[in-house]
Amino acid sequence: LLCASLLAVGCALGLRLGRGRGAADRGLLAWLCFNALVHFALEGPYVYLSMVGNITDSDALIASLSDARWLYFDPTIVSVEILTVVLGGSLALVLVYAIVKEKHYRHFVQITLCVCELYGGWMTFCPDWLMGSPNLNTNSWLYFWVYLVFFNGVWVLIPGLLLWQSWVELKKMHHKGSNSRKKFQ
């Protein structure tokens, strides 16, 4: 319910900020607002509670059904989540600003955020995979395919698409710059 409400608020906010822009930027702004809300509202409390040793938060308990490391202080998860909350959430907000104000650093921030998201996902799951997934619930179809694969896959697919978008835009800028230099020669 909380995740659905964050999605609704993120989409509404992103679509409002994206008025007058193309569909890709409106969708991206909705995603970024949702992404920032998730980092600050869902992951932030987990980091704090795990550091003080008091994880009773219902969202952490639900997440623990698919990944048991959300129930206790796992240093890898907490380290990645600190980076994700502070850097990932902040970069999402900076990127919203860069898109809305058409700043020159938009794609630098976009690439940085995407790499952080992909790195965070890798460091969250790879150590457990290397040990045979002792903390991941791979026996339940719901917990494995919906919670682990789908929900985490979104944070792989969207950053991957955004990296591709930045690549294409930077390539266009390079060719545009190269063509204008040739005119002056």
TrEMBL record:
Matching entries from InterPro entries are given as: EBP (IPR007905), EXPERA (IPR033118)
One GO MF term on file is: cholestenol delta-isomerase activity
User: Keywords on this record?
Assistant: Membrane, Transmembrane, Transmembrane helix
Question: Could you state one GO cellular component term attached to this entry?
Answer: endoplasmic reticulum
Membrane-topology annotation of the record:
Multi-pass membrane protein
Which part of the chain is the EXPERA domain? 24-163
Q: Name one GO biological process term.
A: sterol metabolic process
Name the Pfam families on file.
EBP
Question: Which chain regions cross the lipid bilayer?
Answer: 77-100, 107-125, 145-164
Location comes to: Membrane
The family annotation for this protein states: Belongs to the EBP family.
This one is known as: Emopamil-binding protein-like protein
Which organism does this sequence originate in? Bos mutus (wild yak)
